[in-house]
Amino acid sequence: MEEQIVSILHSDPDDMRVFLNKFNDLLCDYEKHCYINEKIPDFKLINSWMEHVKTKIIIKHENRSILNRREDAEDKNVFDTLSLLVSQVETADQNILLFDNSNIKLKSLSHNTKSLENELLVTQQTIKKTKEAEYKEIRRVHLAFLFFLIIFSYILLSRLLIFKIGVFIGQIFKKIIYRSSRDEL
Fold it and tell me: What InterPro entries does UniProt report for this protein, alphabetically (predicted)?
């Protein structure tokens, strides 16, 4: 791939549009090839190729005569096309860098909508399962808290009842002792 791009860059283009189209196609193929092989494209090399193309356009533009305005207008269109191409490549490079920093990474560019839909369904099912597990866990915590409250109130009530029963038994013993002491007198 790189050799083809270098050979096109060293050739002398007669028609700049054809030259730029070939260069753009080869550059896209180079990036696709890199992503398929799970490599990161050499951005410095791509930028040097772009600079080389810019200088070719500038040199070609300088060699033209001022009298031929029509060809200058075409060169302006080609230069605008190249500027647009450079901005698109820079945007793609920025998107690739953002893509590399994200959590989701596709292994190749050959994914179709069917496989992406399947991945989305799998992801939705996974999210649904985790939500169900979370709901079950929250329900268990609520049940444990309710169980704790029941046990706590049982212990509290039993202590209060024991105290009341103790007071009641104490009063009974007091009456028994009082009656027995009264009977003795």
Answer: Sec20_C
